[in-house]
Amino acid sequence: MTSFVHSFSAPGTPDRDQLGGKGAELARMVQLGLPVPPGFTITTAACRHVFEHGTRPAGLTGDIEHHLALLEEETGRRLGDGEQPLLVSVRSGAASSMPGMMDTVLDIGLNDETVAALARVTGDDRFAWDCYRRLVQMFGETVLGVPAERFGELVAAVVAEHGAEDLAGVGADGLRDLVERGDALCREVAGRSLPQDPREQLDLAIDAVFASWHGERARLYRSRFGIPDHLGTAVNVQAMVFGNRGAASGSGVAFTRDPATGDLGDYGEYLPDAQGEDVVSGTRTAVPMARLRELDRPTYHQLRAIMGTLERHYRDLCDIEFTVEDGRLWILQTRVGKRSPAAAFRIAADLVEEGMITEDEALVRVSGEQLTQLMFPQLDAGSAGPPAAAGLAASPGAAAGRVVLDNATAVAMAARGEDVVLVRPETRADDLPGMVAARAVVTARGGRTSHAAVVARGMGLPAVCGIEGLEIDLTTRQVTLAGRPVFAEGDVVSVDGGTGRVYCGHHRTVPAEVTRWLEGENVESPLVSAVARLLAHADRTRRVGVRANAETGHDVERAVRFGAEGVGLVRTEHMFLGDRRTYVERVLIGSDAEREDALRELHALQRESFAVLLAAAGGRPVTIRLLDAPFHEFLPDLTELAVCAATAQVRGNPNQALEDRLAAVRRHHEENPMTGLRGVRLSILRPELVVAQASAAFEAAADLRDRGCPCDLELMVPLVSSAQELAVVARSVAQAADDVAARRGRVPYRLGTMVETPRAAVTAGPLAQRADFLSFGTNDLTQLTWGLSRDDAERSFLPRYLDDGVLRSSPFTTIDEEGVGRLVGLAVDEARASRPGIPVGVCGEHAGDPASIGFLAGLGVSYLSCSPFRVPVARLEAGRAAV
Ligand code: ADP
Ligand code: MG
Ligand code: MG
């Protein structure tokens, strides 16, 4: 790239990084032969130069001059000309779409002289003054920083003085009055007017668009969506076309398919006699696209044809901004449209069906994150009774919370841990902080393409928009519907963005249809077919197995229904929570007699539990992990016990048993239990525990065999750091195996080890010599690699780290690729070099995290084991990782 400015009609593949999304798509549409008003793009490189040096790069002004001259030549009009004035828009457009987050100024080029010329050439006085008042307002707001409310008040005053209902009822004189008073407002608030020199207007607008990259709402948007801060925006300068030239003109937004459901059909909105801003801002309620068909049939058909061309070109859902000027159609923007999770699956599967994309491509277009959302429960309409209000189903999902009527309250209440529902007349870009804080959004105005709807869908936030007759009174903090109070700030409401209904009170949710289908119910719907189709393809494609972590027969059964190929982790300590804890306590610190009894009981309990799990798994592998918890978790609380003993003393009846128990708990007290006597260390100190657990597993397997049920048993040793530790435990296990074999015949099993200490990872080679399989416990591995306690860090400094950007995500949620991930990769390679083909699994939290699965699969692990609910997500992500 040599120049900082590129014409929309320049040849070659448009470079998105330089031209931004909007500029690149405008250039592409010109190449596709679509009717795009001419113009040029100032590159992101120019913007970055301005940020770095505080001034425009040398040559930029000349480049703009040159392209402006070309534009004047092409349109036959000149900027500032008293006969044939050229009007342009100055539009932001970053490489990653940030809808509505930065500034745009329309109608640049008007001043007291050119407004008269525009009136003359169009023969329409009112129209010319309508453009001028728009320029004063947009320039005032975006370049001069005059608050939008001030203009709002001014418009309201002028409308009232003219006895009209809205601006449409105000004539040319009224609009001229509005221009004058708007300009006075600029002088009052910003100390200056709209410049009369159109070149100066243009330059100031360009600089303002650059600067809007650093605006608060743009920053917030980037941090929410992980867009880097240094990229900068491109600026598009484009000849104006006018949707505000009367009844044969208008502006609209259209989708090639329904962005909420993926259905085919007409989705979009059209506003006659309006410029584009009016549609997006939701200040006037637009009519559905289908109305355009009645208003202007040829234009409607031309638009449908263009939408077809765009869909075939992008091979995806597109959204389009268009304007009709006096019956002539112009396309002002297109992009691959944002969509709800349900629409993502539907559209991907439909495009495969239509032969537009391959199944592999379809898989890449959906994500585990979206599937997670489709599995969330929905509001139970049956139990909720009649809705309090109903509008458009703008973004699916269900949530409940307290009504809040402004951003600051939403943010403050959310910070106190309250669930809030943001209720606004409409949302604008300034409402983003409130939307981020809220569980759901409700608006009175605006359609499915309004700001609220678009942003909510992108965030996966339930939203109901366009509730007709909903009035929000910010003084009384009351919300009324058709004049009757429905709820007040602070009331709890439940919002169903899938149906567009809002209910008073907190309501029950029901399982989503996708979840019901996964559970084995016979659900027939286009969405379920789409999910089924893509999951089946993921299963065919993926090279990584998917298992589940489960401790109950119920969970194993669900996991199997959800597609798990086995149980990768049975946390046996989970079987000794609550009342059962004392079995382990007695084994650990009881008298000799108590220990014998407790071991026998523990054996019996485990034998039964294991048999249930093995049976539920139906012959699929089940990995039983030996007891793993910090020692103290099995003991009574030291302080409580000390108090009991002291009380007994004081009362004059000291209790020897209690004293002995207290002494034992004291003896075993550890300062750092997480790095203390746990996992394999306990197994070595108390081999009888290993023998009891292992023989329970073997007996359970033998019981099943006797009943003719298949089973595939694995035993796994936790927290191992050296091959010698594993060897010691292997001997106890072998002893139990021999013992059971003598009575019941041999039970085949495999013995493996967890890799969850950094030492285990770097000695995976020698470990693999002694183990039949390895499984990464990425939770402990993260904790020990970083040297930070998960339980404590998440409550103390991690939140601050995330806020300040020291960390981009919690390493306990998404795998730390550079550190922990590197250890995993190294261990996989060394284990395989030492013992080719050794199965290596991952059974930590990360195995079910959509953002980690692709990375882990890429390291060549054999299987992922995650919570049952995450199994479908892991299947899908593993499939995506393989295409
Ligand atoms: P955003 O990125 O916030 O959507 P845009 O740059 O797309 O901002 O502009 C805002 C509105 O102004 C859109 O509705 C667009 O269609 C309209 N618009 C932009 N440029 C022109 C133009 N040259 N002629 C007519 N309308 C325009
Ligand atoms: Mg736009
Ligand atoms: Mg662990």
From TrEMBL:
<keyword id="KW-0547">Nucleotide-binding</keyword>
<dbReference type="InterPro" id="IPR008279">
    <property type="entry name" value="PEP-util_enz_mobile_dom"/>
</dbReference>
<feature type="domain" description="Pyruvate phosphate dikinase AMP/ATP-binding">
    <location>
        <begin position="60"/>
        <end position="285"/>
    </location>
</feature>
<feature type="domain" description="PEP-utilising enzyme C-terminal">
    <location>
        <begin position="533"/>
        <end position="879"/>
    </location>
</feature>
<feature type="domain" description="PEP-utilising enzyme mobile">
    <location>
        <begin position="418"/>
        <end position="500"/>
    </location>
</feature>
<dbReference type="Pfam" id="PF00391">
    <property type="entry name" value="PEP-utilizers"/>
</dbReference>
<protein>
    <recommendedName>
        <fullName>Pyruvate, phosphate dikinase</fullName>
        <ecNumber>2.7.9.1</ecNumber>
    </recommendedName>
</protein>
<dbReference type="InterPro" id="IPR000121">
    <property type="entry name" value="PEP_util_C"/>
</dbReference>
<dbReference type="Pfam" id="PF01326">
    <property type="entry name" value="PPDK_N"/>
</dbReference>
<keyword id="KW-0670">Pyruvate</keyword>
<dbReference type="Pfam" id="PF02896">
    <property type="entry name" value="PEP-utilizers_C"/>
</dbReference>
<comment type="similarity">
    <text>Belongs to the PEP-utilizing enzyme family.</text>
</comment>
<feature type="domain" description="Pyruvate phosphate dikinase AMP/ATP-binding">
    <location>
        <begin position="294"/>
        <end position="347"/>
    </location>
</feature>
<keyword id="KW-0067">ATP-binding</keyword>
<feature type="domain" description="Pyruvate phosphate dikinase AMP/ATP-binding">
    <location>
        <begin position="17"/>
        <end position="54"/>
    </location>
</feature>
<dbReference type="InterPro" id="IPR010121">
    <property type="entry name" value="Pyruvate_phosphate_dikinase"/>
</dbReference>
<dbReference type="InterPro" id="IPR002192">
    <property type="entry name" value="PPDK_AMP/ATP-bd"/>
</dbReference>
<dbReference type="InterPro" id="IPR018274">
    <property type="entry name" value="PEP_util_AS"/>
</dbReference>
<feature type="region of interest" description="Disordered">
    <location>
        <begin position="1"/>
        <end position="21"/>
    </location>
</feature>
